[in-house]
Amino acid sequence: MHEIVTSGFLFPNEIEVHWSIMIVIYPYITGLVAGAFIVSSLYHVFGVKELKPIAKFSLVGAFCFLNFACTPLLFHLGHPERAFNIMFTPKFTSAMSGFGYIYSFYLVLVLLEIWFVFRPQIVSMALESTGLKKLFYWFLALGNYDLSEKTLAIDRKLILFLAAIGIPSACLLHGYVGFLFGSLKSNPWWSTPLMPVIFLMSAIVSGIAVLIICYWIVMKAKGMKPDNNCLKCLYKYLWGFFIVDLTLEMLEILTMYYEAHEEWHIISRMLTERLGFSYIILQMSICSVIPMILLGIVSLTNMKDSTRNTLGIFSSALILIQVLAMRWNVVIGGQLFSKSLRGLTTYNLPFFGREGLAMAVVLVALPFITMYVFNLILPVWQKEVPKAEG
Amino acid sequence: MNKDRRNFIKQTGWSILGGGLLISVFPLLPGSAHASKNKNHIFAFIVDIEKCIGCGKCVNACIKENSVPNDFYRTWVERYHILENGEVIVDSPDGGSDGFKPQEFKHKVEKAFFVPKLCNHCKKPNCVQVCPVVATYVSKEGVVLVDDKHCVGCSYCVQACPYGARFINPETRTADKCTWCYHRIKKGYKPACVLVCPTGARQFGRIDDPESPVHKTVKEKMLQILKPETGNEPMTMYLGLDKEVR
Predict the structure, then answer these.
(1) Which of A11, A209, A271, A333 would staple A319 via disulfide (CB 3.0–4.6 Å)?
(2) Which of helix, strand or coil describes residue B167?
């Protein structure tokens, strides 16, 4: 393990960075949930018909990410076996204590919506299969095989309702994650009212970007032709939300720079001496300027589908890196300078171990593996779903 | 019968809604975000900077008394050198536990002094506000404590403390900090650091006790606190605090 390099003065208890890469990927995965859900709602609630091919997948994506949103936290806790104390003995003045409730509420909501969206498919699979498989799908269908027009109409209403309350819930979930940081007045890098909004916007952006890439990969893997109208629409939304997201990020740093409170000297040192690559190069230059320009071109000009998709997917990949860099710069950056405002420390990311890079990669990969398994049980891309809404 | 049932459901619904609203509004009430409301903050800790000689006895006494793990500190001493060119050099090698070796600088030293630090046992503590499981709380005497049997080790309090007074104890994997030697003060003894301080730079006692040295200091002297802008209202106060100290 590398030695921690410090410069200037830090309070003696500040040498070690307490919130590790696990706390970086926690808002990252949570953000993907919120973004994917918003895409699904754009179709279900706002009737953006172009997004129909991806509406079902985005909901499944949201669900798969949501399953692992809490996992990094459990890996980080000193006592993960006490995690449920957050729900059993909550402290309502603590921003963190609400997470258990908000998370559970949202999980139930997404689960319900998925069930209603996939119900026709579950029923048809139950009817087609035999033996244990039939029993399994019967269980998934909760023993209800009713697919009459009247029932499906009720299902559609419920999907609309769940998707509608899901939007503020998704915003709440991720705005809240931003609030966890933004409400800490002890840390000038975190304590800004813009933090929850930036987290929310970057969540939406990362969710759209991950869906674009997944959709493209799945279509290629299945030898199917992606729906170019759908992708075109996603690029436009991605561009729009990214403009807002990046503007807010710029405004935040410009305000800090312009106001130049006493903490600015250490924050600017932190940005240049410790986060030169992840903040200046990745977050604010390469991974923001290039996708901003490319997505603008993609959205505003006519070009060959293949060219558009190459540029759009490349931009989406860059945006995913940008958002990850943003999470890193917020979470790790906020711990690299001393609260004495007189010194800087370093964060050495171990490769192995409970809070190491390898574990983080595994945790980020798990939702994708879950998507694959989900697709085995309930094929997401099945076209001929009888009377299915999705 | 049906009407009764409907009324019952209606009333239950309204009660749940009303109750829910009350619960959700409660944390928004002024001052209620801080658990120390209505607590009796009867103790104060006074640090007299001009008396501190940086010997580090207090740090060692604290480590021994509270079995503080290596490389972490419940209390520490900082040394400040303010040079004639305006530069401020601060250090605290090993928390000041072995005292301080003389340092040489290119520029003339205008001022030099030691600043003992510890938990501020705030009246409105951030750490208590953010603890998601009520493991960090304010005792009835106003001392901020941690229940290590209940703490989940999320480090939120460590992040929330503006003074760097908290850490995650690597042995218990829970939040740890100065308790003003709660086990001692409950019995009427002084905290270990106060007891061993050879110059009386650290004073501790009841504010309401006329016999306590703290009582007189609080009543008569001009005191400062660290980071007053946070609104935490620390009960650890300083005599002769320089503007450079944070």
Answers:
(1) A209
(2) strand
